[in-house]
Amino acid sequence: MEAQGQTVQKTIRQSPPVDLTKPYDAAWVKGKHIVITGGASGFGAAFVQRWASQGASIVIGDIDAEAGEQLVQELRKELGNTNVWFVRCDVTKWQDQVQLFKEAVRLSPHGGIDCVVANAGIAGKDIMQTPGDLSADEPPPPNFKVVDVNLYGVLYTTHLACYWLPRNPGSSPSSPQTDAAKTVRDRHLLLLGSVASLAGIAVQPQYGAAKHAVLGLFRSIRISSFMQGIRVNMLCPYFVATPILIRPAKIMLAGAGLGRVSDVVEAGTRFAADASICGRALVIGPPAKAVRAEDGQLVPSLTHEGDGEETGIWECYADDFAAVDTWTRRWVGLLGYIESARGWVGWAKDVAASYWAPTEHKQNKKTA
């Protein structure tokens, strides 16, 4: 299974697990043109701050025009980097995102986009499990804004990234063999998932469902994105003290520790800067020391005793991704083998059986 997993990884141009002890240079983002949704606050604003300080040109898309414009003005003044722009964008509206990408291309110093960060996300009160008055004739309709932003907004961003990234002038198809230190033009899509992509989250079923879907999106498109030369990576932050963390969650997590924005930015910067990382995911959680598990992987210590310095950044499902994708490849191959073994005769029999089989409508009519 391991050898076949390595074959799959090679075929889809997926990197091996990220070596977080391997140094990289954040200055590698210099000259890259980056589009980031939800970039006016939270993780997005922190990414913008870090990457603009390293010389990247950035287009921020956000629904909060006041915060976005203020951030741009502050960064231009502080950093002297005039290649930072704001475009108002409601990620739940297709035409808003289309306009964001078109404007980003127009503003690009080289006429293309190197990196797209699908960062926009919200949380809020979820009434799916608390429908209110149980004596009423029917419950009120749920508000699906969290799903609209965290899932459909990401799908729009992904769809547009898959169109514009391969058109980036001067870029080459992404590969783990890329020399990151010498690569400026890129084709990188970074998805913002969550620990809620990996496990359930209490009283936030919509948020959990949307973030699970982002994980599914990542695992699906990274298998075939090599055909467009795009590298796809994902961040899965734990609860971090940002505006998206609602008060009940803060109370529930009191004393348990939170992830650090600086670690989220560090993990995102490694992905954005190192063009050789393809198809990987990193989890960001409360800082902990590392211990080596039986399979050799470094995992967080549950006793706070371990080797080396504390870190809040961890490789996510390094082996499981390969194993699951290998299983899927075997299953599809098996179906193909069965089909070829049965030949055209078997195919024709199945088609004929499907065509002549009584439909549900005819069955209902016959039994009426």
Defining key terms:
disordered C terminus, 2 domains, alpha/beta, 368 residues, Rossmann fold
CATH architecture of the largest domain: 3-Layer(aba) Sandwich
Number of DSSP E strands: 9
Order of helices and strands: HEHEHEHEHEHEHHEEEHH
Level-1 CATH class name of the largest domain = Alpha Beta
Instruction: Calculate Rg over CA atoms.
Output: 23 Å
- Percent of residues in helices: 40-55%
CATH topology heading of the largest domain: Rossmann fold
Termini Cα gap: 54 Å
Total count of helical runs of at least 4 residues = 10
Uncertain spans: 250-256, 359-368
The major β-sheet equals: 9 strands, mixed
Query: How many domains is the backbone divided into?
Result: 2
Which of globular, elongated, flat, extended, rod-shaped describes the shape? Answer: globular
Q: Find the structural class using helix and strand composition.
A: alpha/beta
User: What fraction of the residues are assigned to beta strands by DSSP?
Assistant: 15-25%
CATH superfamily grouping of the largest domain? NAD(P)-binding Rossmann-like Domain
Average pLDDT metric: 84
InterPro entries: NAD(P)-bd_dom_sf, Sc_DH/Rdtase_CS, SDR_fam
Family: Belongs to the short-chain dehydrogenases/reductases (SDR) family.
Pfam families: adh_short
Keywords: NADP, Oxidoreductase
Q: How does this structure look, described?
A:
By secondary structure, the chain is α/β, with parallel strands linked by helices. The chain folds into 2 domains: 9-316, Rossmann fold (3-Layer(aba) Sandwich); 331-367. It contains 10 helices and 9 strands. The chain has helices at 2-11, 42-53, 65-79, 94-107, 145-164, 205-224, 247-252, 261-273, 318-356, 360-367; strands at residues 33-37, 57-62, 84-88, 115-118, 188-192, 231-237, 281-292, 298-300, 307-315. Strands 1, 2, 3, 4, 5, 6, 7, 8 and 9 form a 9-stranded mixed beta sheet that branches. A hairpin with a 5-residue loop joins strand 7 (281-292) and strand 8. Helix 5 (145-164) packs parallel to helix 6 (205-224). It is globular.
